[in-house]
Amino acid sequence: MKIGLDLGSSTLRIADEKQGVVLREACVIGDGLAGGPTFVVGSAAEKMIGRTPEHMQAVCPMGRGVVSAPRATGEFLKELLPQVVGWRWKWRPKIVAAVPARITEPQKQSLIKALKFAGASEVSLMAKPVAAALGATPETGTKRSTMVVDIGAETTEVAALAPGIVVCESIPVGGRQFDEALLCHLRNVHGLEVSRETAESLKKELGSAHPVRDEKKVKVFGREMESSLPLTVDVNGKEIRLAVEHPLQQIVALVKQTLDKTPPGIASDILTHGLMLTGNGALLKGLDLYLADQCGLKVQVAANPGDCAVLGLLQTKHNFNEAPKEEK
Ligand SMILES: Nc1ncnc2c1ncn2[C@@H]1O[C@H](COP(=O)(O)OP(=O)(O)OP(=O)(O)O)[C@@H](O)[C@H]1O
Ligand SMILES: [Mg+2]
């Protein structure tokens, strides 16, 4: 059996050919310290961040789209893969995994090693922008020139495809950098300290990249920075939009830079057909309109943008020949 796996900075997604996406789980592991046993993975571990008991630590195995904690990544996958593959596990699946287009050889080997440790029989890797394009538009897939902008939790990758990757640029900016920008704004303007989860919820509820109708206002609860006492402030949509302007501008610059580097024939196709937004960072309200204004292109947000890459992985044939190098 073959399964697709997208191990992102915030979410692990697994899909199979029959059922589509079968698992979406937070990429966090509650790790027993001093090499002790692994206790919890996924959303249960995510809730432990900042509140772990003494003998444990909450580890995010991935950072900026690549393996940052190899042991934790292996343990994390070993806990979750059998849950998905169930009784078929004894046959050990072939895994097609999405990776950043500009991944280095050691980063590749680190992921392959973790997947084999978790039980994969064979591993094939596919560049995430190609997978995302296939997942977003299966009917046209990568048959004609297209541009994909994948905005994840910690990375944005922009690729011109024709149909393989012609140009690909990436930056370590994603949804978490929007959350950071909001945290800074609340501190600097309102003297309010809130958790990362609060900032992320605020972004999802009230955040936008382009003015929206019925601009809302919400009460945000936190701690006053000076006194540490509880504090509630009113926050409106416009100030949130201004607060996330910097990371948004970094994404605009990346799109323009990639277009600049794209050969004219392919660039003109992209100008005609526009670009496709994938990754859940694309769910920020009005992001399509903002990028269309700033870059002068048609912009479309894919359906279920976060799932595009994992679904696209299963749409082509793969060579399962990526063997990890022997350790010396
Ligand atoms: N409704 C929403 N509005 C704005 N942002 C959202 C929304 N829903 C999810 N996000 C953001 O999407 C980001 C996660 O996207 P995604 O799941 O594609 O990342 P990932 O694949 O784990 O990371 P990466 O591709 O960078 O390795 C988070 O920062 C999350 O806050
Ligand atoms: Mg991703």
Describe the structure.
The protein is an alpha+beta fold and 328 residues long. It folds into three domains: 127 residues, Nucleotidyltransferase, domain 5 (2-Layer Sandwich); 104 residues, ATPase, nucleotide binding domain (Nucleotidyltransferase, domain 5); 69 residues, Actin, Chain A, domain 4, CATH 3.90.640.10. The protein has eleven helices and 18 strands. Helix 10 links the parallel strand 17 and strand 18. Helix 5 crosses helix 6. The C terminus is likely disordered. The site of magnesium ion (MG) has 5 residues, from loops. The site of magnesium ion has 5 residues, from loops.
Outline type: flat
The total beta strand count reads: 18
Biggest pleated sheet:
5 strands, mixed
Q: CATH H level of the largest domain: which superfamily?
A: ATPase, nucleotide binding domain
CATH architectural group of the largest domain? 2-Layer Sandwich
The CATH topology name of the largest domain reads: Nucleotidyltransferase, domain 5
**Mean pLDDT over all positions:** 90
Are any ligands bound, and if so which?
adenosine-5'-triphosphate, magnesium ion
Q: Report the span from N to C terminus.
A: 32 Å
Unreliable runs, pLDDT <50, ≥5 residues? 324-328
Radius of gyration (Å): 21 Å
H-E string = EEEEEHEEEHEHEHEEEHEHEEHHHEHEH
- CATH level 1 name of the largest domain: Alpha Beta
Q: Which percent range fits the helix content? A: 25-40%
In percent, how much strand structure appears in the residues? Answer: 25-35%
